[in-house]
Design a protein that fits this description.
CATH superfamily: Aldolase class I
CATH class: Alpha Beta
Order of helices and strands: EHHEHEHEHEHEHHEEHHEE
CATH architecture: Alpha-Beta Barrel
Distance between the termini: 16 Å
Largest sheet: 8 strands, parallel, barrel
Number of helices: 10
Number of domains: 1
Structural class: alpha/beta
Oligomer: single chain
Shape: globular
Strand order of the largest sheet: 1-2-3-4-5-6-7-8
Length: about 250
Amino acid sequence: MPKLSVNVDHVATLRQTRGGKQPDPVAAAIIAELAGADGIIVHLREDRRHIQDRDLELLRQVVKTRVNLEMANTEGIIQMALKVKPDLVTFVPERRQELTTEGGLDVQSHRTSLQKNIQKLKKAGIPSSLFIDADPLQVKASKQVGADCVEIHTGKYADAPDGQARRKEFLRIAQAIRQARRLGLRVNIGHGLDYQNVSPFTTLSGIEDYSIGHSIISRAVLVGLERAVREMKQLIQGFHCGERQER
């Protein structure tokens, strides 16, 4: 069965708008796990715009499933990862001006530094994933630099203007998943996936984990976090209202 990892960054974003202590992303992570989440994701940005060091350190102590740390390929964050020892590190591109991650990592252009830092993490027992576009060259480069896993960026699929464009992106992602699996890489997918567009991926084999944050936290505002997580997990496992979807 595919797994669901819930990104709690947006809970921290809401907290930081007032500079207070609530809502607490650590509490949100605990609720998400109780609702069936198989992992918790946080992106520790260099500018600390949402998740703080305190959040990551506490999450590592209280999360019972897995902690996936998204981060830029920079020395300061690498040192934080070595200190906290998450279950998985996912390297992502990062720009100060962006609202959220805008695209996949250019692995080919950063081969040397990625390979060095992946090996550094591996020596500490921390596996690495690379957040990449559904591009065969990037998939191949990910294997070459020593990554254990790739997370295929689904943003272009989610943002497609019409059904034809969405179908085209879906096929590109499916091809990238097959290529990554042939190379022996584990495969996660994420970015822009929601309750309306995620179901087609349940027809594909080889996806280990769905990384979803914004749509779950948005729905949680209306129906509660426990229900929002439970409903998303039912969708990715091919169920709808408790019934198996027809293939």
